[in-house]
Design a protein that fits this description.
homodimer; 136 residues; mainly alpha; 2 domains; two-stranded antiparallel sheet; 6% strand; disordered C terminus; DNA-binding
Chain lengths: 136, 136
DNA sequence: CTTAGTGTACTAGTATATTAGTACATGATG
DNA sequence: CATCATGTACTAATATACTAGTACACTAAG
Protein backbone atom coordinates (compact mmCIF):
# COMPACT_ATOMS: atom_id res chain seq x y z
CA UNK A 1 0.00 0.00 0.00
CA UNK A 2 0.95 3.61 0.17
CA UNK A 3 3.60 3.08 2.75
CA UNK A 4 6.37 5.47 1.85
CA UNK A 5 9.11 3.18 2.94
CA UNK A 6 11.05 5.78 4.82
CA UNK A 7 14.22 4.07 3.83
CA UNK A 8 16.75 4.07 6.61
CA UNK A 9 19.76 5.62 5.01
CA UNK A 10 22.51 3.06 4.89
CA UNK A 11 25.87 3.85 6.40
CA UNK A 12 28.89 1.72 5.74
CA UNK A 13 32.31 2.03 7.29
CA UNK A 14 35.64 1.07 5.86
CA UNK A 15 37.89 0.63 8.85
CA UNK A 16 40.89 -0.06 6.68
CA UNK A 17 40.68 3.09 4.62
CA UNK A 18 42.54 5.25 7.09
CA UNK A 19 39.78 7.81 6.79
CA UNK A 20 38.46 8.87 10.20
CA UNK A 21 35.12 7.31 11.06
CA UNK A 22 33.45 10.63 11.77
CA UNK A 23 34.55 11.88 8.38
CA UNK A 24 33.20 8.84 6.62
CA UNK A 25 29.84 9.57 8.18
CA UNK A 26 30.04 13.19 7.06
CA UNK A 27 30.95 12.20 3.54
CA UNK A 28 28.15 9.70 3.32
CA UNK A 29 25.56 12.20 4.46
CA UNK A 30 26.80 14.74 1.96
CA UNK A 31 26.97 12.13 -0.73
CA UNK A 32 23.43 11.06 0.09
CA UNK A 33 22.26 14.61 -0.35
CA UNK A 34 24.18 15.11 -3.55
CA UNK A 35 22.83 11.89 -5.00
CA UNK A 36 19.29 12.52 -3.87
CA UNK A 37 19.11 9.61 -1.44
CA UNK A 38 18.61 12.13 1.32
CA UNK A 39 16.23 15.03 1.02
CA UNK A 40 15.37 18.05 3.09
CA UNK A 41 13.50 16.99 6.17
CA UNK A 42 14.63 13.39 6.22
CA UNK A 43 15.54 12.08 9.62
CA UNK A 44 18.90 10.46 10.11
CA UNK A 45 19.51 7.50 12.37
CA UNK A 46 19.74 8.62 15.98
CA UNK A 47 23.12 9.09 17.49
CA UNK A 48 22.75 6.00 19.61
CA UNK A 49 21.23 3.84 16.91
CA UNK A 50 23.93 4.59 14.40
CA UNK A 51 26.56 4.10 17.06
CA UNK A 52 25.21 0.62 17.71
CA UNK A 53 24.88 -0.22 14.03
CA UNK A 54 28.44 0.75 13.32
CA UNK A 55 29.80 -0.51 16.62
CA UNK A 56 31.31 2.82 17.51
CA UNK A 57 30.94 5.36 20.28
CA UNK A 58 27.91 7.67 20.23
CA UNK A 59 30.23 10.64 20.50
CA UNK A 60 31.80 9.78 17.20
CA UNK A 61 28.43 9.93 15.51
CA UNK A 62 27.60 13.08 17.43
CA UNK A 63 30.77 14.71 16.24
CA UNK A 64 29.94 14.03 12.63
CA UNK A 65 26.42 15.33 13.06
CA UNK A 66 27.61 18.38 14.94
CA UNK A 67 30.10 19.27 12.27
CA UNK A 68 27.43 19.00 9.62
CA UNK A 69 25.15 21.12 11.74
CA UNK A 70 27.75 23.85 11.97
CA UNK A 71 27.77 24.02 8.21
CA UNK A 72 23.99 23.92 8.30
CA UNK A 73 23.69 20.70 6.41
CA UNK A 74 21.83 19.18 9.33
CA UNK A 75 19.44 20.39 11.98
CA UNK A 76 19.28 18.78 15.38
CA UNK A 77 16.41 18.95 17.79
CA UNK A 78 17.02 17.78 21.30
CA UNK A 79 14.91 14.84 22.22
CA UNK A 80 13.62 14.49 18.68
CA UNK A 81 16.40 13.68 16.31
CA UNK A 82 18.63 14.92 13.53
CA UNK A 83 17.33 15.99 10.16
CA UNK A 84 18.54 17.16 6.78
CA UNK A 85 18.25 20.91 6.91
CA UNK A 86 16.94 23.20 4.25
CA UNK A 87 20.14 24.36 2.62
CA UNK A 88 20.77 28.01 2.50
CA UNK A 89 21.56 27.93 -1.12
CA UNK A 90 21.97 31.65 -1.00
CA UNK A 91 23.06 34.23 1.47
CA UNK A 92 26.46 35.05 2.89
CA UNK A 93 28.03 32.55 5.19
CA UNK A 94 31.66 33.15 5.95
CA UNK A 95 32.24 29.48 6.53
CA UNK A 96 30.64 28.55 3.25
CA UNK A 97 32.89 30.92 1.38
CA UNK A 98 35.84 29.50 3.17
CA UNK A 99 34.85 26.03 2.13
CA UNK A 100 34.45 27.05 -1.45
CA UNK A 101 37.90 28.60 -1.38
CA UNK A 102 39.23 25.35 0.06
CA UNK A 103 37.61 23.29 -2.65
CA UNK A 104 39.01 25.50 -5.37
CA UNK A 105 42.46 25.59 -3.84
CA UNK A 106 42.51 21.82 -3.69
CA UNK A 107 41.43 21.36 -7.26
CA UNK A 108 43.92 23.91 -8.54
CA UNK A 109 46.69 22.14 -6.69
CA UNK A 110 45.69 18.73 -8.02
CA UNK A 111 45.32 20.02 -11.54
CA UNK A 112 48.59 21.92 -11.38
CA UNK A 113 50.37 18.79 -10.28
CA UNK A 114 49.58 17.09 -13.56
CA UNK A 115 50.29 20.12 -15.68
CA UNK A 116 46.91 21.74 -16.07
CA UNK A 117 46.27 25.43 -15.64
CA UNK A 118 43.47 27.31 -14.01
CA UNK A 119 42.11 28.01 -17.46
CA UNK A 120 41.96 24.30 -18.16
CA UNK A 121 39.87 23.87 -15.07
CA UNK A 122 37.51 26.62 -16.07
CA UNK A 123 37.16 25.13 -19.52
CA UNK A 124 36.40 21.73 -18.08
CA UNK A 125 33.80 23.24 -15.79
CA UNK A 126 32.15 25.01 -18.69
CA UNK A 127 32.03 21.73 -20.49
CA UNK A 128 30.14 20.25 -17.61
CA UNK A 129 27.47 22.88 -17.87
CA UNK A 130 26.89 22.17 -21.51
CA UNK A 131 27.02 18.44 -21.13
CA UNK A 132 25.27 17.52 -17.90
CA UNK A 133 24.44 14.05 -19.11
CA UNK A 134 27.35 12.39 -17.43
CA UNK A 135 26.33 12.04 -13.84
CA UNK A 136 28.22 9.70 -11.67
CA UNK B 1 76.66 34.85 -18.72
CA UNK B 2 73.41 35.33 -20.53
CA UNK B 3 72.08 35.08 -17.03
CA UNK B 4 68.37 34.65 -17.34
CA UNK B 5 67.54 36.20 -14.01
CA UNK B 6 65.92 33.07 -12.80
CA UNK B 7 63.53 34.76 -10.45
CA UNK B 8 63.64 33.07 -7.07
CA UNK B 9 60.16 31.76 -6.49
CA UNK B 10 58.69 33.44 -3.47
CA UNK B 11 57.37 31.34 -0.61
CA UNK B 12 55.21 32.80 2.10
CA UNK B 13 53.99 31.08 5.23
CA UNK B 14 50.86 31.78 7.19
CA UNK B 15 51.58 30.43 10.62
CA UNK B 16 48.11 31.26 11.86
CA UNK B 17 46.26 29.36 9.19
CA UNK B 18 46.45 26.03 10.94
CA UNK B 19 47.63 24.49 7.69
CA UNK B 20 50.80 22.46 8.16
CA UNK B 21 53.91 24.22 6.95
CA UNK B 22 55.00 21.40 4.71
CA UNK B 23 51.60 21.45 3.04
CA UNK B 24 51.76 25.16 2.45
CA UNK B 25 55.01 24.63 0.62
CA UNK B 26 53.49 21.87 -1.48
CA UNK B 27 50.48 23.99 -2.36
CA UNK B 28 52.62 26.94 -3.32
CA UNK B 29 54.78 24.88 -5.61
CA UNK B 30 51.74 23.37 -7.26
CA UNK B 31 50.06 26.72 -7.45
CA UNK B 32 53.18 28.22 -8.97
CA UNK B 33 53.09 25.61 -11.69
CA UNK B 34 49.40 26.09 -12.31
CA UNK B 35 49.78 29.84 -12.52
CA UNK B 36 52.88 29.67 -14.70
CA UNK B 37 55.26 31.18 -12.16
CA UNK B 38 57.16 27.92 -12.18
CA UNK B 39 58.11 26.08 -15.33
CA UNK B 40 59.69 22.77 -16.17
CA UNK B 41 63.36 22.81 -15.28
CA UNK B 42 63.22 25.69 -12.84
CA UNK B 43 65.30 25.16 -9.73
CA UNK B 44 63.65 25.57 -6.39
CA UNK B 45 65.40 27.05 -3.37
CA UNK B 46 67.63 24.49 -1.73
CA UNK B 47 66.34 22.67 1.28
CA UNK B 48 68.66 24.58 3.56
CA UNK B 49 68.11 27.95 1.96
CA UNK B 50 64.35 27.75 2.13
CA UNK B 51 64.56 26.47 5.68
CA UNK B 52 66.54 29.56 6.63
CA UNK B 53 64.26 31.92 4.73
CA UNK B 54 61.17 30.57 6.40
CA UNK B 55 62.84 29.98 9.76
CA UNK B 56 61.90 26.34 9.82
CA UNK B 57 63.71 23.04 9.99
CA UNK B 58 65.32 21.70 6.82
CA UNK B 59 63.46 18.46 7.27
CA UNK B 60 60.16 20.24 6.90
CA UNK B 61 61.21 21.57 3.51
CA UNK B 62 62.62 18.19 2.60
CA UNK B 63 59.36 16.53 3.46
CA UNK B 64 57.43 18.82 1.15
CA UNK B 65 59.90 18.30 -1.67
CA UNK B 66 59.94 14.57 -1.17
CA UNK B 67 56.19 14.33 -1.29
CA UNK B 68 56.14 16.30 -4.53
CA UNK B 69 58.83 14.08 -5.92
CA UNK B 70 56.77 10.97 -5.23
CA UNK B 71 54.03 12.43 -7.39
CA UNK B 72 56.65 13.31 -9.98
CA UNK B 73 56.09 17.03 -9.72
CA UNK B 74 59.70 17.56 -8.68
CA UNK B 75 63.02 15.96 -9.44
CA UNK B 76 65.83 15.98 -6.93
CA UNK B 77 69.48 15.52 -7.69
CA UNK B 78 71.79 14.98 -4.79
CA UNK B 79 74.36 17.68 -4.49
CA UNK B 80 72.72 19.74 -7.21
CA UNK B 81 69.26 20.78 -6.16
CA UNK B 82 65.57 20.31 -6.69
CA UNK B 83 63.82 21.10 -9.95
CA UNK B 84 60.41 21.21 -11.50
CA UNK B 85 60.12 17.94 -13.32
CA UNK B 86 58.97 17.48 -16.85
CA UNK B 87 55.31 16.82 -16.35
CA UNK B 88 53.61 14.02 -18.08
CA UNK B 89 52.05 16.87 -19.97
CA UNK B 90 52.45 14.98 -23.15
CA UNK B 91 51.70 11.38 -23.67
CA UNK B 92 48.71 9.52 -22.33
CA UNK B 93 46.49 12.50 -22.87
CA UNK B 94 43.68 10.13 -22.21
CA UNK B 95 44.62 9.40 -18.64
CA UNK B 96 45.39 13.03 -17.94
CA UNK B 97 42.03 14.12 -19.24
CA UNK B 98 40.41 11.51 -17.11
CA UNK B 99 42.19 12.85 -14.08
CA UNK B 100 41.15 16.40 -14.85
CA UNK B 101 37.57 15.29 -15.26
CA UNK B 102 37.82 13.50 -11.94
CA UNK B 103 39.16 16.57 -10.20
CA UNK B 104 36.41 18.73 -11.60
CA UNK B 105 33.74 16.20 -10.79
CA UNK B 106 34.94 16.02 -7.22
CA UNK B 107 34.99 19.74 -6.73
CA UNK B 108 31.57 20.15 -8.29
CA UNK B 109 30.17 17.51 -5.97
CA UNK B 110 31.75 19.09 -2.92
CA UNK B 111 30.60 22.54 -3.91
CA UNK B 112 27.15 21.29 -4.79
CA UNK B 113 26.79 19.68 -1.39
CA UNK B 114 26.98 23.11 0.20
CA UNK B 115 24.80 24.79 -2.32
CA UNK B 116 27.25 26.31 -4.75
CA UNK B 117 26.88 26.20 -8.50
CA UNK B 118 29.40 25.59 -11.22
CA UNK B 119 29.34 29.31 -11.91
CA UNK B 120 30.37 29.98 -8.33
CA UNK B 121 33.33 27.68 -8.84
CA UNK B 122 34.35 29.44 -12.00
CA UNK B 123 34.11 32.79 -10.32
CA UNK B 124 36.24 31.61 -7.45
CA UNK B 125 38.83 30.24 -9.83
CA UNK B 126 39.01 33.54 -11.63
CA UNK B 127 39.58 35.27 -8.34
CA UNK B 128 42.43 32.93 -7.51
CA UNK B 129 44.38 33.98 -10.55
CA UNK B 130 44.28 37.55 -9.38
CA UNK B 131 44.83 36.96 -5.70
CA UNK B 132 46.82 33.91 -4.66
CA UNK B 133 47.16 31.97 -1.45
CA UNK B 134 44.86 32.46 1.43
CA UNK B 135 43.99 29.28 3.15
CA UNK B 136 41.75 28.02 5.87
C1' DC C 1 5.06 13.93 37.11
C1' DT C 2 7.28 10.06 35.24
C1' DT C 3 9.50 7.81 31.65
C1' DA C 4 11.84 6.83 27.60
C1' DG C 5 13.90 8.73 23.84
C1' DT C 6 16.89 12.16 21.92
C1' DG C 7 21.27 15.09 21.59
C1' DT C 8 25.25 17.11 24.57
C1' DA C 9 29.30 18.06 27.77
C1' DC C 10 33.21 16.78 29.98
C1' DT C 11 37.07 13.85 30.54
C1' DA C 12 40.64 11.00 29.13
C1' DG C 13 43.39 7.41 26.57
C1' DT C 14 45.62 6.45 22.38
C1' DA C 15 47.24 7.12 17.92
C1' DT C 16 48.87 9.95 14.38
C1' DA C 17 50.76 14.12 12.41
C1' DT C 18 53.98 17.67 12.48
C1' DT C 19 58.19 19.66 13.30
C1' DA C 20 62.82 19.82 14.92
C1' DG C 21 67.91 18.08 16.26
C1' DT C 22 71.54 15.92 14.65
C1' DA C 23 74.42 13.22 11.92
C1' DC C 24 75.12 11.03 7.44
C1' DA C 25 75.39 10.06 2.19
C1' DT C 26 75.83 11.58 -2.39
C1' DG C 27 77.29 14.24 -6.28
C1' DA C 28 79.76 18.27 -8.27
C1' DT C 29 83.97 20.80 -8.50
C1' DG C 30 88.68 21.95 -8.61
C1' DC D 1 91.60 13.43 -3.26
C1' DA D 2 89.61 17.34 -0.72
C1' DT D 3 85.98 20.19 -0.16
C1' DC D 4 81.63 22.07 -0.32
C1' DA D 5 76.86 22.12 -1.36
C1' DT D 6 73.17 19.39 -1.97
C1' DG D 7 69.49 16.05 -0.34
C1' DT D 8 68.57 12.15 3.25
C1' DA D 9 67.97 9.07 7.45
C1' DC D 10 67.14 8.47 12.07
C1' DT D 11 65.46 9.92 16.37
C1' DA D 12 62.61 12.31 19.34
C1' DA D 13 59.65 16.09 21.35
C1' DT D 14 55.33 18.05 20.91
C1' DA D 15 50.89 19.01 19.33
C1' DT D 16 46.75 17.64 17.44
C1' DA D 17 43.26 14.33 15.93
C1' DC D 18 40.38 10.65 16.91
C1' DT D 19 37.68 7.75 19.60
C1' DA D 20 35.67 6.20 23.77
C1' DG D 21 33.57 6.29 28.90
C1' DT D 22 30.46 8.29 31.50
C1' DA D 23 27.16 11.34 33.14
C1' DC D 24 24.06 15.16 32.07
C1' DA D 25 20.12 17.95 29.71
C1' DC D 26 16.38 18.65 26.79
C1' DT D 27 11.88 17.12 24.52
C1' DA D 28 7.81 14.41 23.68
C1' DA D 29 4.45 11.34 25.37
C1' DG D 30 1.81 8.73 28.65
Amino acid sequence: MGSRQRVPFRFRLDLHSGVPVYRQIIDQVRGGIASGSLSVGDQLPTVRQLAVDLSINPNTVARAYRELELVEVLETHQGTGTFISAQKIRGGGEERSRQLAQIVTDSVARAGAIGFTVEDLVEQLRGLVLEPSRRR
